[in-house]
Amino acid sequence: MIPALKGRVTMSNETGDLTILSLREEDSGKYAFSGAEQSRPLKPKEVVLHVYDLCAVSNNERISKVQVDSQVKNSPNSSSCSVTLSCSVLGGSQVELSWSRDGQRIAKAENRTTLTVSPSREELYSCTASNPVSSLTGRVTVPPCQTHGEPEPEPEAELNGNHRTVQQKKRRRDCEKERKGV
């Protein structure tokens, strides 16, 4: 036991979590933990602890605003859509971002400023910006994508970028159908 922590450390018997009470700036540093469970040694762990005096932190280090904007993109025939969410942060340094959907954290979106989604129902998205001295969350409600009908099969000629040829081929097919009475 570190003498400076005597009387300020508690340990949970259920989880093994250690808690340092009445933190002080001088408690900052690297801590190494080791122990045993049922006479089997546990893998040692190291934790780096940073303790900040919030009264001494400048306003420049605090996050002052988090804004989430959304932009809807529909496919040309409105058969599908996607929504791009953008998270912008004012103020703060050492900022980390996390996203959540309806209160559930999105693991693969850590530290990304944009997120693209295709909601089938109304969903609440949140972007949380955190640094060692502050944390703020911006939110936006995204309505379900509005799609119309089945996707049209893409004409083969469109792949080579020859749009006029595609239109002419479609017109020819339509005319042939009319002549045949289909």
From TrEMBL:
Q: Looking at the record's lineage, which domain of life comes first?
A: Eukaryota
The keyword Transmembrane is annotated on this UniProt entry: no
* Location within or outside the cell: Membrane
**Compositionally biased tracts (Basic and acidic residues):** 173-182
Q: What is the first-listed, main subcellular location in coarse terms?
A: membrane
Q: Which SMART domains match?
A: IGc2
Ig-like domain location is: 44-141
Where is the stretch described as Disordered? 141-182
UniProt keywords (A-Z) are: Glycoprotein, Membrane, Signal
Q: Does the keyword Transmembrane helix apply?
A: no
The record ties this protein, via PROSITE patterns, to: IG_LIKE
Q: Name one GO cellular component term.
A: membrane
Q: What is this protein called?
A: Ig-like domain-containing protein
